[in-house]
Specification:
By secondary structure, the chain is mainly alpha-helical. The chain is 55% helix and 8% strand. The chain has a domain of 61 residues. It has 4 helices and 2 strands. Strands 1-2 form a two-stranded antiparallel ribbon. α2 packs across α4 and α3 packs antiparallel against α4. The radius of gyration is 14 Å and the shape is globular. It starts with a helix and ends in an 11-residue tail after the last helix.
Length: 100
């Protein structure tokens, strides 16, 4: 499975050098997969089951800094990385239970 899988789908590539970080555009890739990832990102951002995975916290951190659209795209990229790791390792997604 290629390591450039998220960028081939169309989520932006992340270019980092030192303290600078830049995300590329959303122009390339499969339109249907991008749409599905964005819908999944919106679902994860608004539903309770994903609160303790770190995904929701990353979404809200980006939301307050950059706004709703970049936050949704960043979460979609995060989810794409999680899906790639699940396919690579052959595991299922199990959200962590809250500690009481």
């Amino acid at each position: 499975m290629p390591t450039a899988w998220p960028s081939r789908i169309g989520t932006p590539a992340i270019c980092q050098s030192g303290e600078h970080s830049h995300q590329g555009p959303l122009r390339r890739g499969h339109r249907g997969l991008k749409y599905a990832l964005v819908l999944l990102a919106q679902h994860c951002a608004w539903h309770r089951g994903f609160g303790d995975t770190g995904l929701k916290q990353a979404y809200y951190r980006c939301l307050h800094r950059h706004g709703p659209t970049p936050a949704t795209v960043a979460l979609a990229r995060h989810l794409c990385d999680v899906i790639l790791a699940m396919l690579r390792d052959g595991t299922d997604f199990t959200p962590q239970q809250p500690v009481a």
